[in-house]
Amino acid sequence: MILTQCAVCATELGLSLGKKCGRCSTRYCGPECQVQHWKEGGHDQLCKKIKKAGGAEQYNANEKYAEAVAVAVKKCAEDTKGQTCYICTQALHWKTKEGLVRGCACRGTAGFAHVSCLAEQAKILVADAEERNLDDDKFERWYTCGLCEQEHHGVVRCALGWACWKTYVGRPETDAARRLAMGLLGNGLSAAKHHEDALAVKEADLSTMRRLGASENNILVAQSNLANSHVRLGRNEQASNMLRDVYSGRLRLNGEEHQSTLRAALNYAILLATLKRFKEAKSLLRPAIPVARRVLGESHDLTLSMRSIHASTLYLDPGATLDDLREAVMTLENVALITRRVLGGAHPLAVGFEGSLRNARAALAAREGDDVSALCDGVDAMTPRGA
Predict the structure, then answer these.
(1) What is the largest CA-CA distance in the chain?
(2) pLDDT one-digit tens code per residue, 74-121
(3) How far is CA 153 from CA 60, 131, 157, 301, 308, in A?
(4) Which of 40, 112, 150, 261 has the most CB atoms around it within 10 Å of its CB?
């Protein structure tokens, strides 16, 4: 996590309040906590070690990275048994001795790797692009599989987020790679369901951008990420205005056919559905889905997610007609089929779409059997699934 609290009393310091240890930059709310940490908290033993590692932020990033890798390896252990890394071709990493992970859409014997190898590969590609001053900086390799070209997810995404942050945290605050790394860390924490930690990182990211006068595009990205963390913490009303403003900003800045605008529409529609504002969600998605199909294609994860959420607004709506329920089931059957083919049945999107399909079929069966009470119970229990 970005260090924004006093190391002793956890007082929130934001990005600039309080004071720092002159040697290692550990943060405190004031001299009293700093003295207490030195005398009673063990800082006298750790200070030199933290400084040697590059300072408090770097030391914290290194520690959190190691923890996240261990979690990812353990989570993937059953899937990776007997496999080797497609980058270094070894089962155990030659230096770190870490095991393998796979958190993308690769299937069969493809896609197994060490987080360290994935991080080193991404670092090399970004450095090469920076050296040659390329517009395409290859930064997507920090969160996208080089084989299946799909985004990593879950605890693997979190480990890569920490890997990215520890790689660039030592750069100046104005450095583009450092700013991108902070955003990737926030999204990685969200992917692993560390929502409170993700919120803190994303708030720090947005605050930094505003202070440095970042572009409107980057501000919108940070606002969207922050709003999604509020949603995951159940703060839906707080997020509603943010996502509405992000969508309006994307339309103005990028136009209706841009992928960022379509993703903003999806995020806002998911929240509207969660708030049971089904009519608004349907009005937003109906014109956007044909655009996504034309621009991105039928098998793009964004197109599939938009179609799934639209189907959910149909079967979740208490006023749904029989035709609405049938349309929802047909749509979700098609979406689930495409997703299994493209991403595999174990991918989180495929699992989510299958769940929505089961719910839609239950709602349709209840209506066709005139079991009104069962339909109402089912609708109350359902929640839209999103990207």
Answers:
(1) 73
(2) 999 999 999 999 999 999 999 999 999 999 999 899 999 999 999 999
(3) 23, 29, 5, 13, 19
(4) 261
